[in-house]
Amino acid sequence: MQLINIFTTLALLLSIATTTPLVSVNARKDKGVLDEPSIYGDGTGHGSGQLETARAVYFSTNDPTGNAVITIQVDEDGLLAMGNKYPTGGKGGIGIDAKTGKPALPDPLSSQDSLQVGDDFLFVVNAGSNSLSMFSIDTANPTYLTLVGEPVDTQGEFPVSVAYSSALKQACVVNGGAVSNVACYTVDRAAGLAPVEGFMVKDFGLNQTTPPMGPLSTVSDIFFSPDSSGLHVTIKGPNFGDGSLLSFPCNIESRLCKAPTANKPNGTAVLFGSSFINKTTFLAADASFGAVTIQIDKTATGFEQTVLSTTPINGQRATCWTAFSRKTNTVFVTDAQVNHIVEINPDNGSIVSTVNLTNSGKGNFDLQVGGDFLYALSPLKESVSVTVLDLSSGPGAPKEKQTFSIPGIVGQSSTGMQVFPAVSI
Predict the structure, then answer these.
(1) 151 pLDDT more than 90
(2) DSSP secondary structure of 275-317
(3) Contact 84, 71 (CB under 8 A)
(4) Contact call for residues 38 and 56 (beta carbons, < 8 A)
(5) How many helical (H) and strand (E) elements, i.e. helices and strands, does the chain have?
(6) R_g of the chain computed on alpha carbons
(7) Residue 240: which pLDDT band, with cuts at 50, 70 and 90?
(8) Omega prior to 215 cis, within 30 of 0
(9) CA 181 to chain centre
(10) 280, 295 in Cβ contact below 8 A?
(11) For residue 12, what pLDDT is reported?
């Protein structure tokens, strides 16, 4: 495994907020400290397939004083090398731990997909200013972003997760505060985001506060079906009660999603992040025991769901985030309080492998797969790192490859993990 630190120069330069790339400092030990970024490929990158090696990874600082997106270049060997920082024009937010009454760190949004990549766009929630920002991605060098238009109001409070449909050309955000709902926006390359006409924004009735008290009874994730026929929201149950799944039927021709069907998948309690593995089946983390595989079918009146399998994980404490790999046809899950990454076979719910990481992290958060590699976010008190696993040997054989550490720039409030080109099923 290779341990990487971005040097003090990067920490100093990235701390200065501008709307242009701040620095391209190469931290790979096999290259010079100030090498220029590599530019490779033909720059098309419109969700061209998950088996292509990622060319950039992204997460957000979620800083309450001013949110920003961190972009990190991925070299041809899948390892991370350099970074830029882009203010979103909004503010990050931090929930409240209901047990202690203190800020809910290091899991401030209690959600998956706080930022999303689709086509050559990046979307990011600003929980502290109730807004959603949109960037265009430079396909020739995807660590370069351009803010498109102004952040839009999310028509609710404390947005925590965002989904994008290339077919609908829409981004939808879920709010999890005192006003908890879903709002959708058309995506225009020049003008940015605009509310979808005819989409009914209706409160979920969670009886939450802003910021929300959690992690129970909070919104977890929003995601489209691979064919954009449905928009789905997972919600953690109260007092370890039934988890909730809301599914909005979507029409490609009218480009409109209608009122949702509400389901409570059997045996679930604290539904969290979810990843589709085919057009009708997804695996969802459940922080109370591990994970669950759910089939969801569209009917004349909405959606119906069937629990196909459950995956208890021994010794787990807060399994929350998921990522599907087409390379291995398995799903990887992370735990906020256990420093391991667990690989699950979604066909039968069995555990394929467990990687006990050797870095100094206490747990891992949002994660994403790009080609042969997996990237997982590990926020610490005074820094943040991204763990890289090599999946090239196939199912059951992930290898810890790199810990990319960014000291003094971002920390416990950081959230999200996405890659470019965008992941596709």
Answers:
(1) yes
(2) EESSSSEEEEEETTTEEEEEEEEE-SSSEEEEEEEEEE-TT-S
(3) yes
(4) no
(5) 1, 33
(6) 19
(7) low
(8) yes
(9) 19
(10) yes
(11) 32
